[in-house]
Amino acid sequence: MAHVAKKIPLGEPGAVFEQYEDIHQQNDSYVVGMWAFLVTEVMFFGALFLMYSIYRWKYQPYFWEVHHELDWRLGALNTTILLASSFSMALAVHFAQRTQKTKQLMCLGTTVLCAFGFLVVKGIEWSAKWEHHHIPGPNFHWTEATVPPNVAQLFFSLYFAMTGLHGVHVVVGIIVISVLAILVAKDNVMVKGDYIPTELIGLYWHFVDLVWIFLFPLFYLIPR
Amino acid sequence: MSAVATQVSHQEKNYLNDENTIKSWLLTKDHKRIAVMYLVAISIFFLAGSIAAGMIRLELVSPRGAFLTNDAYNRTFTAHGVIMIFLFLLVGIPAVFGNFLVPLMIGAKDLAFPRLNLVSLYLFFTGAAFALLALIFGGVDTGWTFYTPYSSMYSNSQVALVLVGAFILGFSSIATGVNFIVTIHKMRAPGMTWFRLPLYIWSHYATSIIIILGTPVVAITLLLVVLERVFHLGVFSPELGGDPVLFQHLFWFYSHPAVYIMILPAMGVVSEVIACFSRNSIFGYKFVAMSSMAIALLGFFVWGHHMFISSQSMYQGLVFSLITFLIAVPSAVKVFNWSLTMYKGSVWLASPMIFALGFMGLFVIGGLTGVYLGSIGTDVHLTGTYFIVAHFHYVMVGGTVMGFLAALHFWWPKMFGKMYNESMAKVSAVLVFIGFNVTFFPQFIVGYLGMPRRYHYYYLNPDFQIWNIASSFGSTVLALGFLLPVIYLTKSLKSGAPAGPNPWGATGLEWEVESPPTKHNFHEIPVVTGLVYDYNSEADEAAWEEEEREMEHVTRGGQH
After folding, report:
1. Distance CA A52, CA A61 (A)
2. Whole-model pTM?
3. Which of A178, B74, B221, B415 shows the greatest Cβ crowding within 10 Å of its Cβ?
4. Chains A, B: CB pairs < 8 Å
5. CB–CB of B232 and A136 under 8 A?
6. What CATH class does B22-529 carry?
């Protein structure tokens, strides 16, 4: 890849929907739409982060005690996996801009594989919580005398709400990236010669990773 | 203002008769057809909500309650609130007139994402179905605010179902908001700069910003209430270590801006109507446009005024109170500028104008009583009484519903190409105005005297009865005022005179195309060269002067 960067292709007129004048207007609209959507996502997770902050402020010593139940090694592994997936997604955009289809598909595939790996690790963690009766609800069981059970349950409620919502976003990401990969493989007019769809899905994927970058220290690395 | 010639024969296909299969309606991506489907749906919901309101008013005629039990009454007022707010007010103007007019007003063929628009419609239907199922399976008794921990732990009613409905409706709303923002940013016709946009578009832009910032927060909050209720995933209930006041904070962080989601589009309607029927360009265009943005921004920093009597700190209350007063400024800017637009204009009291004037009168009362409620001292006395109910209805019914009716009458000829019976419309406008005041003004008084809201009896203080009877009487007049348009508007579809492209002599791109518009709105994309409110261009002024001279001549001849 020592060549001079090629001119970024602009897509073909066949892929322009009838409400738009040209591909520029269409792509501009997609970009604004994606960012507006990401704003809603920030607010969506933002409410949960606010709740977390308030309860952590209120129960910091207890949260420190309870957070030992989470395995930071698995969390760190997942962080690494997601960072790798973000890197391969960025590469996919890079190759999409240069219309190098095979490399783009390989990168998208790597991203999806990483996402599955993340979910597997998450599944291992969650099933351990299930075995220890740390799932909030009537069967929640807490024996450590130093932490009131309801605060422990609150910690796990936040943990499951936030990592669960993040997990849903990972699943959506897997679906969307797979659909994109299929469209690219089939040379669909929507994506042929146009890197914008890849870039937009990339934006979404980076957002999902970014959420995890906050979740990891907030739950696994609570300082005393 | 633009260069589109639109003299076309009546045989031409328009968006209504372009295709006639049911499928072509249900799967349409045309923003105008989607708007019409929303209009039908929300009219039905408005009727349902009104029936609940009628039951409340009938119940309160008697000091001991006329026919409902405590529990049935709780479920009735919750049904009224949920239906009216989530299924009518929040979607009313944006989804019907926003969908119809945003592309037309900015010179676009459609919204930026027509398919997303259709998805939004079906999300709305799905959410509405959940909400209605909840009401059918026994209803909800929490009130439309769903305060925890009652809603999440104790209420023995269909809270989970209605909250799932509200969650889905939120996504419908977000989809519409994103769509409008992108459309206004990227789909404007050549020459349609930001400060040539109609004020209606500005108000929708502000509304959409509130939607995308606020709705996700309430969506996740309501979802957590469902999770707490169903799986005991506790974050709001004190028994589970949570904080119920946190729910109130998060709920009002959305739900206060949500009243601006409801009122800002109505303000946009009034700006258009007042300018048109005063034959005057809007006074202080930029101030009106920016006041919408200011309301959207400030609206996010006042939620605490719903919680003066909760456990929030006194200093927090002071700050929230101050910012609440600040919001009165942009609201007043609008009212003053509308008044000054009428000043020295030639006011034409057509039915949309009467509704718009009704809006101004009622909104001023609603807004000023809001200032009483925004001051901590008086709020502690008035909160939880009928004063709140009256204030809220003055803003939401006197404001939003009046704005909705003004929009309906102003753009009906555009939407369906038919004129309605104007004198009936005037009767309806006057009936709504009078009926509304008779219904809700007594509630200010009875609330000030101390009658609490959400109780279905007041036999401990029988003096309240006279006010309640007045209120219930007014509500029948109001109902009549709402019923009339259903009759004459439906009739106009069959036998109304053809409206022509521009029956009101209004400016704006939407009036330069046929009524009803064709499927793609414009035959060619218009080029905009001047400001929207071009009512006093030189040619116009010459014509008006001519007319005025004639009028003077006639009146002189008549009187002397």
Report:
1. 14
2. 0.92
3. B221
4. 115
5. yes
6. mainly alpha
